[in-house]
Specification:
By secondary structure, the chain is of the alpha+beta class. It contains three helices and four strands. Strand 3 and strand 4 (about 70) form a beta hairpin.
Length: about 130
Amino acid sequence: MSAAQPLLRLTGVSKAYPGFQLQDINLELPPGCILGFVGPNGAGKTTTIRIITNLVRPDGGRVEVLGRTWDRDEVAIKSRLGYVPEDNPIIPPGTTPFSAPCWKNSMFPAIKQSSSSPRATVPSWR
């Protein structure tokens, strides 16, 4: 990936489900920029993110992540990309991240100890 190359590029991406259609999505994310998806329910935000992360295959178009395509460089992309979905299977429903089994011996005791309720605040890192 060259310095001027976009971190993310979607070209003509489309996906159709019964009652829903994502059509001709074109997007480029230059290095150093932050991207947020904002829109009403059903607008295609989650579908687009799932296409970008290769959890859903597009019906058409091309997806490039870090200058690579999923069909040619899946391992290389996965080694550099992180994604935590809204419906995270690691944390059981009805638990907070601070009471989940994976946090019992975590390396984040300051966060864990400061969380007395599900609406715990994370201590300042400044």
